[in-house]
Structures are given as C-alpha cells and as structure tokens.
Amino acid sequence: MNVKEGDEEPEKTEEVDFSEIEDFLSNVEKQSEYKPGLPLSISEKDAIKQQIMRNWTFNAGAKAAQDIVVSLKISVAKDGSVRNVKIDNMIRYSSDSFFRAMVDSAVRAVRKTSPLRNLPIEKYDVKDGWREMVINFDPSEMMY
Question: Taking a C-beta distance cutoff of 8 angstroms, is the pair 34, 129 a contact?
Fold first, then answer.
C-alpha cells in the first residue's frame, strides 16, 4: 500500500475479548443471595407491618414518645415464623432506658405476631422481599 504524504495510515483495530467480563457478571448473578423477581409492593409491606402493629403497645404518655422511631431488622423463615430480630441502634438501647422500653415492646410485638400470615411465597428470596425486612415502629403513626 502506498502512503502519500498527508495521507494517514488506517487505524489498526484491536479485538477486545469480553468473555472474562461476561463470566464475571454471570458469577456475580449466581452468587447473589437473592433470586430474581419482583420486590414486595407497598401494600404487601403495609399488610405485614399491620400484622405486627396490632400487637404493639407502648406508653404514649412517656417523654417525647411521638419523637422516637424504633427500627428492627427481622429475619423470617419460609413458614412465616420470625427467626431473628436485630436492634438498629444498640448504643442508644444501652444508654436510654425509655428507648430500651420502646424497643423491647416492639420486639415483643414481632415475636407475638410470629408466624406472619398471608406472605407471597414467590417474594421470599427476592431482593426487598420478606426474608429480611426492616420495620420501623413510629408512635406518631399510631396516635389519632
């Protein structure tokens, strides 16, 4: 090929092998602890929360009860039974007796509600399904 002055040589293209990237991505999907599927809808989450809230009692007249929100991470078995309840704010739980009382009442409500009912089985193992959930206990939502 004759190259004249001012003419550029054609660019050499290098082939890129994407097989390693494809392998990596497929392994990430396989290693995910969740199966593909739709997450719980807002109404399904509300229905689960309502089951628990029916069993929650707290001292509404206590200091600033409406300003405290308790968050619990709940692990649930496929049959709806509660396997584990984790407290979100252990530092405050250890140092604030009123907060501790609110948390303890929320944990009792979760345990009393177990097993949870009417859970869509196809949403157990999906991301944002009901195998692991965070439930917020907010007294201001309970007061009329």
Answer: yes
Taking residue 48's Cβ as centre, other Cβ atoms within 10 Å add up to 22
0.85 surpassed by pTM: no
Local structure of 87: helix, strand or coil: strand
Taking only Cα atoms into account, the Rg of the chain, rounded to an integer number of angstroms, comes to 26
Q: What domains can you pick out in the chain, each with its CATH number?
A: 42-142 (3.30.1150.10)
* Axis-axis angle for helices 42-53, 97-113 (nearest 10): 110
Chain segment 2-50, per-residue pLDDT in tens: 555 656 666 666 676 777 777 666 665 555 555 667 899 999 999 999 9
Helix ranges restricted to H, the chain: 19-31, 42-53, 90-95, 97-113, 139-142
> 56-65: b or e for each residue (b if 16 or more CB lie within 10 Å)?
bebeeeeeeb
DSSP state of 124: S
Measured in degrees and rounded to the nearest 5, phi and psi for residue 134 equal -105, 125
Residue type, 49: K
Peptide bond into 115 cis (omega under 30): yes
Q: How far apart are CA 130 and CA 127, in angstroms?
A: 9
